[in-house]
Specification:
Belongs to the sigma-70 factor family. ECF subfamily. By secondary structure, the chain is an all-alpha fold. The protein contains seven helices and no strands. Helix content is 75%, strand content 0%.
Length: 182
């Protein structure tokens, strides 16, 4: 009978958390079908150890770790389909410089936030958790999550504006120096 309780408990957990877990899987692998496969594999592996997770509030973290480990195993086991040729094919390569710069700026700006603010922003906007889920994950009230998020976003806006003003001032300064040199 304990086994059927385990099944029902696990099924309820999966039913409640599947969307959030699939979003996490999508961040780990680019292909949506691979993300679904990754999540399914992680769920199968986790099911066998479900009773060993004493604190079920940590199940999301456990599953994310299983997904990361599984993805790493898949990556290591991948078959490389490279074939040496006399002539390289003409291929255009997308320049992701701007995307990398935006991501680097975001990571840098998140660093100005206090750890509590950073946690709230990441869970609400990156992990796309609801206010209630964020509050539960961080052990705070929903009102605290809302006010912390409000202050954190205001701080991020302020930092972005400050950096934008600094950038434009630097740009004007450089143009002025170029004119003087000419």
């Amino acid at each position: 009978m304990a086994s059927s309780g385990k099944v029902l408990d696990f099924e309820e957990y999966v039913r409640n958390r599947q969307d959030a877990l699939l979003r996490s899987a999508r961040r780990l692998v680019p292909d949506p079908i691979d993300a679904q496969d990754l999540l399914q594999t992680a769920l199968v592996r986790t099911y066998g150890r479900w009773d060993g997770i004493a604190d079920k509030s940590l199940a999301d973290a456990y599953l994310r770790r299983v997904m990361i480990n599984t993805r790493t195993e898949w990556w290591r086991a991948r078959k490389l389909d490279e074939v040496p040729t006399e002539q390289l094919p003409d291929a255009s390569v997308e320049d992701g410089t701007e995307q990398h710069a935006d991501r680097a700026l975001l990571m840098d700006i998140l660093g100005v936030l206090a750890p509590k603010q950073r946690s709230v922003v990441v869970l609400r906007h990156w992990e796309q958790m609801s206010t209630e889920e964020t509050a539960e994950a961080l052990g705070m009230s929903t009102g605290t999550v809302k006010s912390t998020l409000h202050r954190a976003l205001a701080r991020l806006r302020q930092e972005l504006e400050s950096r934008d003003l600094d950038f434009h001032a630097l740009e004007r300064n450089e143009r002025g120096q170029e004119r003087c040199a000419a």
